[in-house]
Amino acid sequence: xxxxxxxxxYLAFDPLKPLSGxxxxxxxxxxxxxxxxxxxxxxxxxPDTPDKILFTGHRGCGKSTELNRLLADPEIQRTFLVVPFxxxxxxxxxxxxxxxxxxxxxxxxxxxxxxxxxxxxxxLAHLLADFWMPQSEPVGFLKKExxxxxxxxxxxxxxxxxPYGKLRLEAASREYLRKALASTVSTLITHIALLAAIxxxxxxxxxxxxxxxxxxxxxxxxxxxxYRHATALTQPPCKILYxxxxxxxxxxEFRPVARNFSGWFVLPNIKxxxxxxxxxxxxxxxxxxxxxxxxxxxLITPEALDFLIxxxxxxxxxxxxxxxxxxxxxxxxxxxxIDLPIARKxxxxxxxxxxxxxxxxxxxxxxLVARDKQVREIxxxxxxxxxxxxxxxxxxxxxxxxxxxxxxxxxxWDVHPIVASLL
Length: 423
What we know:
- The structure is a single chain.
- This protein has 22 helices and seven strands.
- It is about 55% helix and about 10% strand.
- The protein is globular.
- Strands 2-3-4-1-5 form a five-stranded parallel sheet, sandwiched between helices. A two-stranded antiparallel ribbon has the order 6-7.
- Helix 7 (about 100-115) runs parallel beside helix 12 (about 185-205) and helix 8 packs across helix 9 (about 150-160).
- It has helices at about 5-10, 20-25, 35-45, 65-70, 75-80, 85-90, 100-115, 120-135, 150-160, 165-170, 170-180, 185-205, 220-230, 230-235, 255-260, 280-290, 300-310, 315-330, 340-355, 360-370, 385-400, 415-420, and strands spanning about 50-55, 80-85, 205-210, 240-245, 265, 405, 410-415.
- It is α/β, with parallel strands linked by helices.
- The two termini are about 40 Å apart.
């Protein structure tokens, strides 16, 4: 439904809510280039091959929405038992380990099997329960005397993994399970294999696990997961799609590690400007359509809309954030429409957020990127200490959207337009 007033528009531009369901059908705007079609081809071309795929892009560029679109595809649904989960919903992005991920994959697959009424044999139920019940008591899950193995497992995984689960909310439980299970990672992988085999034998479908929001942890956590523990994360014998921070692509270690995975794909930002700074009409039209699908354009002046599109840098979440802020500023001012002064207030709010997070070494790197439209320095393999500090600063800028990449045959980089006003 198209918003007809600012109250409705404020809700329509929720930056924290990826498009799904009816909103996906109503609000989605197609974009090119888009790697989702290539990912779909990899998945459907060999459904029984346990491919591990990396999917990346700048935070807020639309990865979650594109994942939702992919997983809702009828042919994907027919071919796979889809096991999607958001890291932010079931684990703690600020304290994340590879064992946590493997536990979450097993729990997610087990739940999907139960929800789809796929029969679990008595032998497998006992095997899983015999493994998990001894682990459950030290973290405060009291096994009841009555209950079948499946009933116990249902309650255990519900208590362990979820928005209010022990693995997300209790640091002591996380630490205990990591230490207890670090030497039995192969057992977790075996459980996943056995559950995937049951799905295949009972339904004829393969398993596809899609883990969103793995770009939320900091760079050090992401490096720990995908550089030191890539082998463990690629062992489960089913297809897994991991989202990762785009900053990982710029480290010298990425290419050797990427060989552990079947492929990696980048969702680019919308190019609202060309490399020389002139407006890109095609990208501008995509961002304008995104707004028009959600809101009556009479609620914003053409000048204000063009200003916000230009300042968004072509990042979808930045645009929805700016629009929501502008809707609220207009309401506070008692205006029925977003005008240019209101739009400037919305941008100023975001600019202040960036300013609080930037350090001296960040500004040095930002000026280089603004001048050269490149990030060459980050690719050096042999680095002096001062170069390592410079590289870390640039990785942080890529991670927090201060530096944006624009992909085509000749990729280039630029400073986020809002951040550029601080230079």
